[in-house]
Amino acid sequence: MTEHSFTLHRIQGYIASLYLIEYRDRVLLLDGGARYDAVRIETYMKREMGRLPDDLNLALVTHMHPDHAGGAPLLRRRFRTQIAAHIDIDKWYRGFRGASQHLIDTILGHYSARQQFGKLERAWYPRRLKPDYFLDDGHTLPGFPDWRAYTAPGHTLYDMVFYHPEKELLYVGDLVIKTGKKIVLPFPTLFPELMTATLKRMSHLPVKKLLLAHGGELKIDDSYSFFTELLPQVGKYGQTFFRLVEPFCSLAPDVRLYKKNH
């Protein structure tokens, strides 16, 4: 392998797909997964990659929902994996309202896992991530300078995506979801105006392949058309269940603060 060449591995986690980026001398995890996805990662690295989980240098976290942030603390505790995330990520679940939101989001994560895969497993995780590295818009990833982090608010206020310019490869977390043959926006979209701005911004990135947390790998021909065609979906939920549940997803203190100031 050359310095910036890598092998992409995909693992099905409890709720979301997990992506390991394997270099000759280091490994990067795109999103921390759910709590016991840490065990899945350990098993996969040993059996399929022939590597020890201690080789996992960095775990990224796109946002604080249980299927994205739950496994990272366990990886750090067991294998000293360092964590990188949005500079303000630990504001999301702060205070009493944040604690309530954390509980509700964990329950919804279980519901999603049951609906999709018919399984339940322990998913409780700390509501503060305490990253080792704080990322802001445009930062290169520590130890992986061929990757860049971009802020992508809309789903939450502190979402990020991760981009490899040379490969024109974009990990979108929950920004885009593939369900069946449909491409949809995430539930909830708590900040419609910010989601619109994020989609427009992503449309200007040269992208040939998307890595989805929900839906796997997706090749695209025209990133501008792909993202702009999603704009009419912003703020719309087709299912009655989503409309009923949305108020319970708006307890996080920064949702109320943002709406008050805008």
Explain the overall architecture.
The structure is a single chain. The protein has 262 residues and is an alpha/beta fold. The chain has one domain (7-261): Metallo-beta-lactamase, Chain A. It is 30% helix and 24% strand. The chain is built from eight helices and 14 strands. It has helices at residues 37-47, 66-69, 72-79, 95-117, 192-202, 223-228, 240-245, 253-261, and strands spanning 7-12, 17-22, 27-30, 56-61, 82-86, 133-135, 140-141, 144-151, 160-164, 169-173, 177-179, 182-184, 209-212, 216-219. The strands form three sheets. It has a six-stranded mixed beta sheet, covered by helices on one side. Strands 7-8-9-10-13-14 form a six-stranded mixed beta sheet, with no helix packed on it. It has a two-stranded antiparallel sheet with strand order 11-12. Strand 8 and strand 9 form a beta hairpin. The protein starts with 6 loop residues before the first strand and ends with a helix. The mean pLDDT is 94.
Largest beta sheet: what is the strand line-up? 1-2-3-4-5-6
Q: Tell me the count of domains.
A: 1
Nearest-integer average pLDDT: 94
Low-confidence stretches: none
Q: Distance between the terminal alpha carbons, to the nearest Å?
A: 49 Å
What portion of residues belong to β-strands? Answer: 15-25%
SSE ordering: EEEHEHHEHEEEEEEEHEEHHH
Shape: globular
Question: Can you identify the CATH superfamily?
Answer: Ribonuclease Z/Hydroxyacylglutathione hydrolase-like
Helicity range: 25-40%
CATH class: Alpha Beta
Number of helices: 8
CATH topology tier name: Metallo-beta-lactamase, Chain A
Quick one: how many beta strands? 14
The value of Rg in angstroms is: 17 Å
The major sheet is characterized as: 6 strands, mixed
**Class per helix and strand makeup:** alpha/beta
